[in-house]
Amino acid sequence: MKRVLITAGASGIGFAMGQAFEASGYDVWVIDVNAVALESCPKTWTTRVVDAANEAQMRVFFDEIANAGGIAVVCANAGIAGPTAQIEDVAWDDWKNCVDITLGAAFLTAKFAARLMKAAGAGTIVLTSSTAGVFGYPNRAPYSAAKWGVIGLMKTLAMELGPFGIRANAICPGAVEGPRMESVLQREAAAKDMTRDAVYDGYASGTSMRTFVSAHDVANMAVFLASVGAARVSGQVISVDGHTENPDPKA
Ligand code: NAD
Question: Full-prediction pTM beyond 0.90?
């Protein structure tokens, strides 16, 4: 059976990825910092409390997964929203925290997965970036910079690891319905002196399909990127966002 590892898989997009990969016949391993949320994961999954941005914890965890036979697919999905503030008000510590977790976790996941995949001579790495990694994102400088960094990391992984039979691609979700976006909407509404609904409409109207997306839309793309149908797809930035051509320049 093929095995997938998903970071930050106890909720949101990562959880939907676990469900989608399991439905496709994968042995699902999930790590997350939230022990309580991990307990709600299906009992068929292997779950561990691991901080994907902590090198020591990741090293120990990857030793365990190596002993279990390695992984065919890894979804480097961990990331935090970071502060919502104009650049002059972003605290240095908040910048470092957001970039360390959002970009640092992707780096560590890829670093440890690459060792296993190189030894196996095959593998697929799917990184979760964001539309904030394709466009500028006013008031979200650390997050946007980190998500652009995820794209650069993915492009480099694709070139470095392609000769070893390993593919790397990035998914850029648009605004995903759920608790995380709700809190972003509330914070942006406060920062911009707007209502939550007006901010929501701003996001939705920035897409040609006038929509948010679901975690399952993103998860389905991850499964496709890991599938034989994507056997020659690598180094690509794939948006699952209802088509954002030009986000609201007034945002
Ligand atoms: P979420 O806020 O629902 O959180 C998912 C999980 O991440 C939580 O269970 C949390 O405990 C875990 N987590 C946080 N830091 C971690 C760490 N260092 N190590 C391990 N687990 C950690 O998130 P989500 O909305 O599902 O987002 C998942 C990914 O998708 C993130 O990288 C996010 O930036 C990206 N993304 C989300 C959206 C959106 O609208 N929700 C849009 C674009 C991109």
Answer: yes
